[in-house]
Write a structure and sequence with these properties.
The structure is a single chain. 76% of the residues lie in helices and 0% in strands. The protein starts with 5 loop residues before the first helix and ends with a helix. The radius of gyration is 21 Å and the shape is globular. The protein contains 9 helices and no strands.
Length: 279
């Protein structure tokens, strides 16, 4: 029996490392999607309460964490959500560095998008850990949005900068909604053994949840652009104020209910992705 050469040994070790890296990436992605789903379901529930006149918490990440804190083992759940979001950040970072799953995963635009998502989820994870460390303290998302907008407007060419950021958020929201309607999420799913009923359920969650999420982001971006045009940072709105603005339209609180339920469905879609995502 011939002995293993140095090259074969190195190849074997490389394959083992790649396998372990793939397993870590998969665990990180699934944990992150579960954590994201928890936040969206809670935000949607809080928004429904606001629509029916019984909400005393902000319908945003801060309010969702406050809701978790009031549950049994709330502190543990908050830390678990934060750890899950770190997993989400690491998954997106790996896509930026090594490429995403699928035939187009290596495209520069895909890598850039993954890098932007990694930064976003790093910020979100940090905010969750800050909330946990401060035992529920901290400012709401609306306050943070106004403060950041005010500081940005004072910078050289601040109006243009804030307007560009708002436009980017708004366009991102439209893209999210359009991709949901086109069901582009099919490219990321591995549902070969799933029944037709499960496929239809995931399609429903992905389309309705994605449209609701995209509509919310588009509205947030619109308010940021408006704040830039008016040079009034108080016009910038976080998730809570944006959601409440839906109740002040001609459709009344019913539009807020529709968006809120859609966000809850997006949370459920995130859980479905955690089960069937192709990493």
């Amino acid at each position: 029996m011939r002995s293993e050469t140095a090259g074969e040994g190195a190849a074997r070790k490389g394959a083992r490392a790649a396998s372990q890296g793939g397993e870590f990436r998969e665990v990180a992605a699934r944990a992150g999607l579960v954590a994201r789903g928890v936040l969206y379901v809670l935000i949607g529930m809080l928004a429904v309460r606001i629509a029916v006149g019984g909400g005393d918490k902000e319908a945003d990440r801060h309010g969702a964490l406050q809701e978790l804190a009031g549950k049994p083992f709330g502190g543990f759940l908050i830390w678990a959500v934060g750890i899950g979001l770190v997993g989400m950040m690491l998954w997106r970072l790996s896509e930026a560095v090594f490429g995403a799953a699928g035939p187009e995963g290596d495209k520069p635009l895909k890598r850039f998008g993954a890098a932007a998502r990694a930064v976003f989820y790093a910020v979100v994870a940090f905010s969750v850990f800050s909330f946990a460390a401060s035992a529920g303290g901290g400012r709401s998302g609306d306050e943070q949005s106004r403060d950041v907008t005010a500081k940005a407007l004072d910078l050289p060419a601040g109006q243009w900068l804030v307007g560009a950021v708002g436009l980017g958020i708004g366009i991102g929201g439209v893209v999210i909604a359009v991709q949901a309607v086109r069901r582009t999420f099919h490219k990321r799913l591995a549902m070969g053994t799933a029944s037709a009923r499960w496929r239809k359920a995931v399609d429903f969650l992905g389309v309705t949840g994605g449209v609701a999420r995209g509509t919310l982001f588009a509205a947030v971006g619109g308010f940021v652009v408006y704040a830039a045009v008016r040079y009034e940072p108080e016009q910038a709105k976080g998730l809570d104020d944006t959601l409440r603005s839906f109740a002040h339209t001609g459709a009344g609180p019913w539009l807020l209910v529709v968006i809120a339920v859609g966000l809850m469905l997006f949370g459920a879609f995130s859980w479905a992705l955690a089960r069937w995502i192709r990493v």
